[in-house]
Amino acid sequence: MQDLDASKLSVTITMSPGKVPEPDSEEVHNMKTCSDHMVKVTWTDDIGWHAPTIEPYGQLTMSPIASCLHYATQCFEGMKVYRGFDGKLRLFRPDKNCKRLVMSSARVALPTFDPKELEKLLKAFMKADGPKWLPKSRPGTFLYLRPAIIGNGEQIGVTAPSEVLLFIVAVCWPDLSSGTRPGTAPQPPGLKLLASKSDVRAWPGGFGYAKVGANYGPSFVSHMEGRKMGYDQILWLLGSDYQVTEAGASNFFIVWETKERKRELVTAPLGAKVILEGVTRGSVLELARERLATGSTYLTSDIQKLEVIERDFTMLEIEQAWKEGRIVEAFLSGTAYFITPVSAINFRDQEIDIPMGDGASGYYAALLKKWLRDIMYGNVQHEWGVVVEEE
């Protein structure tokens, strides 16, 4: 069986190139415009991974009895490529996304591969489309990258698919953390969350830790109901004690003070495999442990030292901290929403207002966002910012 091998890549240039939309335009906010090309790699159970291609972006065709259409044999990743203020293209910690896609693929009985080969394909893809779609004249912009794997073999029988397609597309994407959209009135800063009631997103022993479509589609029902009520995302709770897990498709963080007035940054743990191991989540935790500890030069009157804690915690604890005035701030992290502050949580029909620091964001969220943005856009040189070589 052949392994995934980026050295076998062939490239076919499109004869119908598209037009790059203006930054922050309505076209960008619609999130439907893709770059000129896409990566495609087929896997079959008799050969293994075939030679990868970069070819013109276009529609996929498959059988009505394709496995992914009936049994959710599919998984995906979400990541971005950035045009730095130093003129360079960068991926942010692509090794993490590539490893996670391998894990997700295995969880739904799809083939695995060397994640380093996928990273090479991502770099080759952006070498082809990055210069046009992220021109050097537009520093501080990005594209959203969607690597995905689907079981597209004719497999109506209840079994693993005999044919699989790995593909990667690049999508023009807005800065969702800004909270603005052209042609609409400015929205109040911060996201409003609606705590889930009877519905759950994931459970111990399930697949909430894998980035598979089956984690997302069922959650849309609660999400759309929440939007009708004026809330931006669902804060997913689990169990009779209202254990906090994720918010929408993002990881959730809260900064509070203990009753002894010690500040903590708290987020749900990975051990039960209920939440996704977010790349941004892990980066927030690493930076906070490194830069917000005792003796750090980053500490100020607003930015006090934090103890970083990954543990199970509940909405009852958040509610109690709110009543006692101990909540400092809360925010979400993820590729789509980056670092976005939370302004309110509705729990059991009670609105819990969350402090917003300077009125636009909590101080910790703003600082962590700046640190990550500096790495992504090359304002500081860091091993997490992986440069894509261009012609």
From TrEMBL:
Which positions carry N6-(pyridoxal phosphate)lysine?
A: 211
Q: Which organism is it from?
A: Hyaloscypha hepaticicola
Please list the GO biological process terms of this entry: L-leucine biosynthetic process; L-valine biosynthetic process
Q: What is its EC number?
A: 2.6.1.42
| Annotated protein name in UniProt | Branched-chain-amino-acid aminotransferase
Q: Where do the coiled-coil regions begin and end?
A: none
The Swiss-Prot or TrEMBL record describes its family as follows: Belongs to the class-IV pyridoxal-phosphate-dependent aminotransferase family.
Q: Which cofactor does it need?
A: pyridoxal 5'-phosphate
Classification from the root reads: Eukaryota, Fungi, Dikarya, Ascomycota, Pezizomycotina
